[in-house]
Design brief:
single chain; alpha/beta; three-stranded mixed beta sheet; 11 strands; 36% helix
Length: 289
Amino acid sequence: MRIHVAIATTGRPKIMSQVVERFDRQTRKPDGIIVVGAAPEDIVGLDRLPNPPVAVISPKKGLCCQRNVALSHLREEADVVVFFDDDFVVSDDIIEQMEKMFAADPKLVGLTGWLVADGAQTGGLTFEESAAMLEKPDFRPDKADEPTSWLYGCNMAFRMSACEGLSFDENLPLYGWQEDVDFSEQLARRGAMLRTAKMTGVHMGTRGGRTSGFRLGYSQVANIVYLRKKGTIGSYHGWELMARNVAANLAHSFRPEPTIDRRGRLRGNLLGFADLIRGKADPRKIVDL
């Protein structure tokens, strides 16, 4: 089974190098690693690693565009592609574990992990903090395998034979936001998918290199509306996610966290609702905001 790692990256060359170099520790090495940057400075230093990955530049900036570049490179090269965020620190056996699971069940088309920690939800973690968590003897989450209809974008593995005709939706520009749900909900119609603690790691949730608060706030409304019309996000999941994010932005706008632009996100939410009322909500609008 040919398993390739794909990583889209923007504005994090130092962390990117640390993340990629850690794959040298894998008990089962990936058959290849491709890193897709949005600009030449995104991949600086990768060529100096002991085992440098394939590094390419996307013709257009944006998570979906960059992930599609990786898919186009790997369509004929890989049996399984696993996408990791550029700030995801993997456990040393993650490739071995996913190979065993895909080999054991031909109907399995997608995997995502129960995480040791997720800095995107709790506040950013350093690479050193993340690596230390994975050194603990009991690091693996005590979670049973669970069927799922969507995969978490920071760590998601696909069986390539099930991905024919699928691509990441480039109408979700820049950071994408919910592009993982859109892609994997379509994949789920073609077979079984699991969330498993066998496939695990730490998502650092590194700040920087991402969309502005204002743009993200707009996406938190417009992207949900778009995906509901497209039929790739459930009504409960979509509206509940939108409500939760808007409520958090409103509640924290009075005393924002130092690393999150809550007021910018709230302004974006309000513009999104205004456009929704006027029938003009469009994910692509963030490019011009």
